[in-house]
Write a structure and sequence with these properties.
Largest sheet: none
Radius of gyration: 18 Å
Distance between the termini: 42 Å
Number of strands: 0
Mean pLDDT: 77
Strand content: under 5%
Number of domains: 1
Shape: flat
Low-confidence stretches: none
Oligomer: single chain
Order of helices and strands: HHH
Length: 92
């Protein structure tokens, strides 16, 4: 699938008007305490920056944003493979 789309220019338009977050008033105290503990746990992991893969960090960022935990810097990213340019250095 990646081979099919890698040379096409894909434009993604983000509509954040209808973005919904976790609203604590809609749930009981048990659910809210679980959400608070997950938010605290996730923020601790986010600050430590110990992620074996970049997509794990992105998933945690999305979870924290949904739970209302401030994450800086945060941006929605285009799905797909990230391109990392490596410039080799040759020494003689």
């Amino acid at each position: 699938m990646y081979n099919r789309f890698r040379f096409e220019r894909i434009t993604i338009t983000l509509f954040v008007k209808d973005l919904s977050l976790f609203v604590t008033e809609e749930y009981n105290d048990d659910i809210n305490s679980i959400a608070d503990s997950v938010g605290a746990w996730g923020f601790k992991l986010y600050e430590e920056e110990t992620f074996p893969r970049e997509d794990y960090r992105e998933l945690l960022e999305l979870t924290l944003v949904y739970l209302g935990v401030p994450v800086f810097p945060f941006a929605f990213r285009k799905p797909g493979r990230s391109v990392i340019v490596i410039h080799p250095v040759f020494s003689c």
